[in-house]
Amino acid sequence: MVIRSMWSVSGILLAVLSLVAGCATPEAAPPPGSLRLIFITCAVHQKFFTPLKKGMHDAAEMMGVECTFTGTPGVDTRVQAEMVRKAVADGYDGIALNIIDPAAFDEVIEEAVSQGIPVVAFNVDDHATPNARLSAVCQQLYQAGVTCGRHAAAWIPDNSHILMTQHDRGVSALDDRLRGEQDALREKGVRWTVVTTGNDAGKGAEVVAEALKKNPDIRVVLGTGQSDTEAAGLAIKRHFRGKGYWCAGFDLSENTLVLIKEGHIRFTIDQQPYVQGFYPVVQLTHCIRLGIMPSSVNAGAGIIDRSNVDRVTELTAKGYR
């Protein structure tokens, strides 16, 4: 059974906290033999997942379960799919999966669910093909791309040539955001050159700088992910400071926030990874213990710019953003 209804993040959090506050026996720590849940992702070492893991650990403590966060170092859907099979074989009670490809995980998810292991998506969902996963806690990626493109359009002249970036190929989330940005800018006659930067923002900055030097008519860079957005900001700071260049994109890092304050990144779109770690734990636990079926949560597409960057920086230091 697939449930796709979208609830507000704040509404679900209030309901969950109210439920926990009213429990006669609070679940503060995992007792012996408690439920074992596992999160499986690509790019497992990326800083993006730091607040997501905090959300996972906070929810695990609240619900009294054990959680493991693991995955592949880069993007390898075959290995990631085999990790799902291993999690089932190792006796995990529930699985949260980053479904970065719309087809690569269909079979293993079906296998897990057919064996009574609930699977929910986090960070990236499979929305393009039938999938047995029970819910998704993630940003509505295409619409977030549209939001980014429309917000940026106010500063992009008609018929401009811009640079658009991705930090990896083969990740459906980045493709969806890119498509949303492009669709939002078509009516302005904007054309684009697309480059892949890699996951190292420092090295990616040189990729962006090279592309800008090859296309001297470009003054705007729109990213689709954390490391390529940061890379674009670094490229402008290092090579094009004070020359009318700017960029915007997605997700947060400490450097991204600094670059926003300095004016090299005009804004970024936040997908609130903390909630992407928090709600899957709650959903899987309630599904297993109470038979409450998970429902999907839109993690949002908030705009962070100079007007609110200081507040977000405070929350980042605490691990929530």
Features:
Rossmann fold; disordered N terminus; alpha/beta; six-stranded parallel sheet; 17% strand
Summarize the structure.
The protein is built from eleven helices and twelve strands. With 321 residues, it is of the alpha/beta class.
Strand order of the largest sheet: 2-1-3-4-5-11
- Overall 3D form: elongated
Number of strands: 12
CATH architecture of the largest domain: 3-Layer(aba) Sandwich
Q: Percent helix among the residues?
A: 40-55%
Strand count, sense and barrel status of the largest sheet are:
6 strands, parallel
**Considering the protein shown, what is the CATH homologous superfamily of the largest domain?**
Response regulator
Structural class: alpha/beta
Overall average residue pLDDT? 90
Secondary structure blueprint with pairings:
Elements (H helix, E strand, L loop, with lengths): L8 H13 L14 E6 L7 H15 L2 E6 L5 H13 L4 E4 L8 H9 L4 E5 L12 E3 L2 H13 L7 E6 L5 H14 L5 E6 L4 H14 L5 E3 L3 H14 L6 E5 L3 H9 L2 E6 L2 H18 L6 E2 L3 E3 L4 H9 L4
Parallel strand pairs: 1-2, 1-3, 3-4, 4-5, 5-11, 6-7, 6-8, 8-9, 9-10
Antiparallel strand pairs: 10-12
Notes on the protein architecture:
The structure is a single chain. The chain is an alpha/beta fold and 321 residues long. The protein folds into 2 domains: 158 residues, Response regulator (Rossmann fold, 3-Layer(aba) Sandwich); 130 residues, Response regulator (Rossmann fold). It is 44% helix and 17% strand. The strands form 2 sheets. A 6-stranded parallel β-sheet has the order 2-1-3-4-5-11, with helices on both faces. Helix 6 links the parallel strand 6 and strand 7. It is elongated, with a radius of gyration of 20 Å.
